[in-house]
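Attaching the record inline, Q. Sequence:
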Amino acid sequence: MAKGQIKPKMTEDNVQKLIIALQSGKHRSSACVVAGIARTTFYEWLDDDENFRTRVEDAEEFWLSLVE
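Structure, as predicted:
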């Protein structure tokens, strides 16, 4: 994160935007753009929050189940 920038807080709104984007088949990078967060922030949340990680994995599995 660049000096002087404020790291966005994890809110249900930005998490929901991520989840919907992942469920629709977007890659993680694209989902981050949709939610308005940096990829680095996404991966920090993924490492730090088990509930968030589970929701992300479930969303990605949802898309894969549709494709199969």
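The CA atoms of residues 24 and 35 lie 13 Å apart. The helical segments are 12-23, 28-35, 39-48, 50-67.

More tomorrow.
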